[in-house]
Amino acid sequence: MGKLLLTTADAIGQALVARIAAGEFHQGDRLPAERELSEHYRTTRITLREALGQLEQQGKIYRELRRGWFVAPPRLIYNPLHRSHFHAMVERQGRVAETEVLDARPVTLDHALAQTLAMHPGEEAWRISRLRRIDGRAVLYVEHYLNPIWFPGLLTADLTRSLTELYSQRYGIQYGGVRFTILPGPLPAFAAPALKVAAGSPGLFITRINRDQHNRIIDCDHEYWRYDALCVDVEA
Amino acid sequence: MGKLLLTTADAIGQALVARIAAGEFHQGDRLPAERELSEHYRTTRITLREALGQLEQQGKIYRELRRGWFVAPPRLIYNPLHRSHFHAMVERQGRVAETEVLDARPVTLDHALAQTLAMHPGEEAWRISRLRRIDGRAVLYVEHYLNPIWFPGLLTADLTRSLTELYSQRYGIQYGGVRFTILPGPLPAFAAPALKVAAGSPGLFITRINRDQHNRIIDCDHEYWRYDALCVDVEA
């Protein structure tokens, strides 16, 4: 006793990584509260937060608003050239996928979206907003914009299913060519809460414009990903 | 006088955007100092910084460490499936490219790099570290790792040039297949200073493994981009 330990942020970070590696905390586990950790390591909250911030930067832990710190799962390997059969892709990587439908309704196209879909401004498209989880963690907020002409009655279908399968089984439409853009940037206020991060947190905005087997543009996706949830991987 | 104006961050942001749109500030221009702006808008530094932070999130301005705020240029449209003829790509988009060689030397391969290059750990590869600018702004810190067997004498060549051209003209090597991964995440401490951002600022880490016309792995690139400098665009 009587000895004051001045633990550095580096040392705390290494100790936490060692505890994760030793299996004391598993992927997706919540770490003890900051107060508890700072008492355990006999350090200040400032030093502890520095340590946690370093681990966050290394992708080893992540934070959820008001919930605390969690051990980070591996990133999803994602090839946007392949059709986004989200559930199949996630399950092939040994993980559990979930889709929640947040909203599905007709919307009036603005100029930019009309151009994307090769439709006219003011025309109606269908917008399906969904939240997708991997192993229970929300990683992707996505808005699908569909040209209704190809999909009569789709809005009343079970939209928690793969759209790819629905297109194929119900409408005989297969995906053909795809064009995608990846824009890194802060997550907008309409997507961040569903992903349980603060608006402005770093994210990845991926748009995909999809054509069918006859090279007609059938839909486009606006995907908002947690930056730490995926690794884009393309071979050509 | 005697009237205290309480300007909101939103109002200041709109005023600044209007001044940029009106041509008072051009792309790449430095904005007036924060003190000057807060006096001009009769507001606190806190509110002013909130306004500047909002514009940064919208991609309209960006910050350089210790230098201040600048009007953001458009993002580079980048297709990693095409060979990184950086100068040609930038110039096709009507902009000015520059390459600075930071370092070029033999390095001993660790396990991960050896695997990437289909070489053995402990073998020597060549590492060329370069900084690339668009219109004078540092946007990309890149490390090229080359298998020396294909490129005798390359380290003494003019490495500010396009490697693509050098490979082709001096060694008869053309690029063939490519595999790339895109990993969004904080910029590491060895790359951030050259890009004039704080370590941990959001960035994009792109790795590319390149094969030649005979399908042999010839080099790999580790690219560290400012997140706001590029938009990845791929069509297939």
From TrEMBL, chains A, B:
SMART domains: HTH_GNTR, UTRA. Keywords: DNA-binding, Transcription, Transcription regulation. The keyword 4Fe-4S does not apply. GO terms for biological process: negative regulation of DNA-templated transcription. CDD domains: WHTH_GntR. Pfam families: GntR (PF00392), UTRA (PF07702). It comes from the Bacteria. The gene is phnR. This is Putative transcriptional regulator of 2-aminoethylphosphonate degradation operons. PROSITE patterns: HTH_GNTR (PS50949).
